[in-house]
Amino acid sequence: MQTSVIVHPPPSQPMKNTPNLLILALLFISLLGHAQTPKKPATTVNYGNNAKNGHYFATRGINLYYETYGQGKPLLLIHGNGGSIKDYRYQIPYFAKHYRVIAVDSRAQGKSVDNGPELNYETMADDFDALLTHLKLDSILVIGWSDGGINALLLAMRHPEKVKKLAITGANLRPDTTAVTAEGYQMIAEESAKLRAGTPDAAAKNTLKLLHMMEVEPNISLSDLRKIKCPVLVMGGDFDVIKPRHTLEIFENIPQAYLWIFPESGHGTVHRYRNEFNAKVQHFFTHPYKKPNWIDWEP
User: Fold this and answer.
1) How much is the pLDDT for 299?
2) Fewer beta carbons within 10 Å, N or C terminal of the chain?
């Protein structure tokens, strides 16, 4: 197995959702843990609600919303549970200088409305595959955060010919406390119970779908993980809601992988460590995978 560990030193300190999705939004924010709230970027671009760059793609009963920025090699951005394209507001302007960025609202989130009764990660991964086929793209780079990392792993497993390189942060393989902290898992269960106790409207039912998916999924085996053919940069925070030892487990079972654990960080790596995150992912994308010699002292 070709694997390598990168532990980076601490850096210098540097959505529009419907009201009924407030619980899920607050849950996601609370899971950021030690992530410091950064200042808003100096930009007038309304990522996630930009008519100039926005498009819809009809696939399997829904209209999948996505926005494109920049030119060059294609880069797909997949956000976390209950999020939207806006969650990548610190990444889109950076990577659009180098790539054709394709940022997507996942099924049942953002502008990608899904009125079906259930959700699963495999369906979402296949949504992205269908979008890439529609755009005539067959070799892409991918960044996935949280649930977006799960979707990205599944995309690489189910459609390996589509993914050239993959960078994930805060992803998990299982919906249990071997992967997720007890506090985080309990919070998801409690919020689901509160919503079920009432009489949820359509938007609240959508939130329940998203929460329920986190309660029972994903269920990715280590043997399936080992089938990933592309190089993967596996990341997470040392105080992430996804346990660092689980992030290590993901890293150890991907044949060509690097590991980067963010110090003093919770789940919000793409915000809290945005400059370091962007630079490290860009370096990963632009350099061939090479397993360092364990005794190699030179940079």
Assistant:
1) 60
2) C
Tokens matching residue 79: 């956000």
Q: What is d(CA 55, CA 52) in angstroms, rounded to the nearest whole number?
A: 9
CA 236-100-131 angle, 5° bins: 80
Q: Where are the domains of the chain?
A: 2-286
CATH fold of 2-286 reads Rossmann fold (3.40.50)
Other Cβ atoms closer than 10 A to 238: 15
Largest CA distance in the chain: 62
> What is the DSSP secondary structure assignment for residue 292, as one 8-state letter?
P
43-63 residue pLDDT tens: 589 999 999 999 999 999 999
CA–CA distance, 50 with 88 (Å, rounded to integer)? 14
C-alpha distances in angstroms, 43 versus 40, 46, 50, 154, 213? 8, 8, 13, 33, 34
CA distance to 32, 212, 214, per residue, from 179 (Å): 16, 17, 12
Token digits of residue 139: 């070799």
Cα 48 to Cα 25: distance, rounded to the nearest angstrom: 15
Omega of the bond prior to 218 within 30 degrees of 0, cis?
A: yes
- The residues, any chain, with a CB within 8 Å of residue 79's CB and separated by 6 or more, are 85, 87, 88, 103, 104, 105, 106, 109, 110, 145, 146, 147, 148
Q: Which residues of the chain have pLDDT under 70?
A: 1-43, 296-299
Consecutive H or E run containing 129: helix 121-134
Specify the residue for token string 């269920």.
219
